[in-house]
Design brief:
- This protein is mainly α.
- It has 2 domains: 58 residues, Orthogonal Bundle (Helix Hairpins); 108 residues, no CATH class.
- 75% of the residues lie in helices and 0% in strands.
- The termini are far apart.
Length: 197
Amino acid sequence: MDAYELLGLTRMAALDAGVVRDAFQRAAAACHPDGGGTEGEKGERTARFQELNAAAAILTGVGSRVRHLLALEAPGHVAERAASMDEKLVALFMEVGQAVRGAGEWAEARRKAETFLAKAGLAGRELEVREGLEGAGAAVKPAMEELESGLAAVDAMEPGAAGRVEWLAALGQRAGFLEKWQAQLQGAWSLIFSVGG
């Protein structure tokens, strides 16, 4: 499947989620399953709608988009099994890990706290945990911005240009790390809110 072709979009590494959403809505309007017709037509429209939805999901996520573009441009490319991280990514990994771990430990202590006094005693730690999560989130943001500028630089290169495939692969790997850490931070925030901090 070529998600770009399905949605009528130009193959690009840097692609705004709003552009993907608009393209999906245009393409999906013609084949929405609730459009009427025979059962066979509804089945065909449903299948097409699901294809378009899958294409939009691929192109919305930075990591999945870059990996998809890499697969389209270099179908024989074999990604390195061992992910490599530079010093910045290692430091970010440590910061995110510490913040997420701290949120988990605080949430567990909060769940076990049975008295008002025990819960009140965790208030100072909660503030530290929230600050740690905010700091880690703030640290991920410029890394994502740097990634986005790298994607724009790849788009400026001609398909098939020397180094483009390797650069796409490296950016896809980096996007995978950053998106995973963003999801972990969101999960940690959800955990904090779910225990009634």
